[in-house]
Amino acid sequence: MTVKITEDMKFSPAYDYIDNGVEHGVLSPFETKEVILKKGQQIAEGFKPLSCDIKMLKDVPVKLRDGVTIYTDIFMPTTDEKFPTLIAWSPYGKSAGTAPRYKNLFNMLGMGNQWNSGLTKFEAPDPAYWVAHGYAVCNPDMRGIAHSEGNTTMIGSQEAEDGYDLIEWLAAQSWSNGKTALTGTSYLTFSQWYIAAEMPPHLTCINPTEGLSDGYRDLAYIGGIPDTNFIERLAVNHVSATGAKREDWIKEMKAYPLASAPLWQDKVADPSKIKVPAFVVASYSSTLHTMGTFRAWRELGSKDKWLRIHDRQEWPYYYDEANIEELRRFFDHYLLGKDNDWLDTPKVRYSLIDFEGHDQTDFPAESFPPAGSENKRYYMNGKTRALQAKPDAVDLPVKYQAGGLPGRASFMMTFDKATQFVGYPKAKLYMEVDGYNDMDVFVWVQKLDKMGNVLSEFVIPNHGAAMQDFSQEGASALRYKGSWGRLRASMRHLDNKVSTEDIPAYSFDRVEKLAKGEIVALDVVLSPIGLSYKAGESLRVVVSSKDELGAVMPGTPGCTPDNHGVHILHTGGQYASYLQLPVMTTPVVKHE
């Protein structure tokens, strides 16, 4: 049986699968067979020649517990030894490493394609590297994708059960050493939280590298504000050669607008159930993944877990040669039983960003936030627009026209000494709206240099003119602009079971519209930071009616705020709005 929650799902026809050996990669034409890919072979022009012989089991059928058959490609050494398997679970085509859409994407990012063999499923490990080091790599087409049977679902218990079944099937194969791991970035991390929580007996360890952990809060309704555009972009990956249907999140958002709906509850990961060793990788900069990755890390039930916070976008990080070698130390220890030095790796390594070309990475710590991080409130002064240590005794409201010019209000402070912030920031805002019954509020913490210029940094290799255009008011996952958060006022209710004084969390189970003259407290959770300021530099917090960071990726619009009338931000007395920041009481210094 498929899982019961599928009865609540809304489906639409999948997109047509074009099986021409181009659209979905040169190895995509369907044929169940075994083939030897020879050392030195180039899968397609522009890709790295293979460094060893590889046995490819192509379009292998795997029957799931409900009788549905999915197909997978498996790459492995040509030796007779038994080996562990790395699994890349996602809806992205198993043979699409040479597909034009991915070649074009990596060229746009400035990475090119020479870093991989062309066997690499999107956001997944490169089989050529891992096979050369004694691993098998499994690239499945999940249910409903390409020639796999069934209808495609997107995150939740159906994918979790399917992933469980694939893991147990792999472990039972004659060539397997009985150990498996999940790895990959973005969607391939999103799926790891769910599959690993099912606790497949032969799942040995996981490597979540930046991925959301809650379908409602991290994707469909960030801050309670609906955003369908990026979801529509994801849906085009749901292609079928069998006439399958795809789960349609846009229809579901209309049918189930609150997070309390069973469908959305099924898309909340429960990392506390995960007990296998986990090497988690995060960044401060991903407007799509940062919140969910850190949340999952905090909740993770693994006794042996590591967190590394880097300073790049996930794809340049994941495919960096040194980082691949480090990941192999983790896998070698748990999957090959090698007595290496992995267990000496610090439990947490965090970064300090300065937006001026001098980021410092891999500060060791026992936790995040690290020892020495202390939350401090900086109160907003409605008259001077300063951030200050103590609140004003009298409230002085600041007003701006929602959606107008400037459509925002900001507050600043300039540092008289070097200052570092590492941890979880938040904003506490007392607000009302004149002329409407709701408001979408966007908060952005910036760094300004000594001349007052707003700073940001690219987290991809391409810094060219076109990328400047895309990322100036968009492509926010590719250019880090500072900590951010957003909240719809009518969705402000806190979830008392999850929310803490330092990290707000919302129930999103009710709509509480604003009455005329009603002042409400908005606890806005902001993305984690590791940010350094020198003396003379300034911090600016922007409270806006617009999503000023813009959409996640180029070519995709961001959310459309539901804002009208005048927003009023209160700044003193009993309505002392403030920005809370995790300041390091003793500045950390990198020792090489």
Note down, in words, how this protein is organized.
Strand 18 (373-380) and strand 19 form a beta hairpin. The termini are far apart. The strands form 8 sheets. An 11-stranded mixed β-sheet has the order 3-4-5-7-6-8-9-14-15-16-17, sandwiched between helices. Strands 18, 19, 20, 23, 28, 31, 32 and 33 form an 8-stranded antiparallel β-sheet that branches. It is of the alpha+beta class and 592 residues long. The protein contains 12 helices and 33 strands. The model has no long low-confidence stretch (mean pLDDT 97).
Topology:
Layout: E1 11-13, E2 15-16, E3 33-37, E4 54-63, E5 69-76, E6 83-87, H1 100-109, H2 127-132, E7 136-141, H3 157-171, E8 176-185, H4 187-197, E9 203-209, H5 216-220, E10 221-222, E11 225-226, H6 229-235, E12 239-240, E13 245-247, H7 249-255, H8 262-265, E14 278-283, H9 290-299, E15 305-310, H10 314-318, H11 321-335, E16 348-352, E17 360-365, E18 373-380, E19 387-388, E20 398-401, E21 408-414, E22 419-423, E23 426-434, E24 440-448, E25 457-458, H12 465-472, E26 479-480, E27 484-488, E28 520-525, E29 529-533, E30 538-544, E31 566-572, E32 575-576, E33 578-584
Parallel strand pairs: 2-12, 6-7, 6-8, 8-9, 9-14, 14-15, 15-16
Antiparallel strand pairs: 1-13, 3-4, 4-5, 5-7, 10-11, 16-17, 18-19, 18-33, 20-31, 21-30, 22-29, 23-28, 23-31, 23-33, 24-27, 24-30, 25-26, 31-32
Helix pairs in contact: 3-4
Organism: Secundilactobacillus hailunensis
GO molecular function: hydrolase activity
Domain Xaa-Pro dipeptidyl-peptidase C-terminal: 328-580
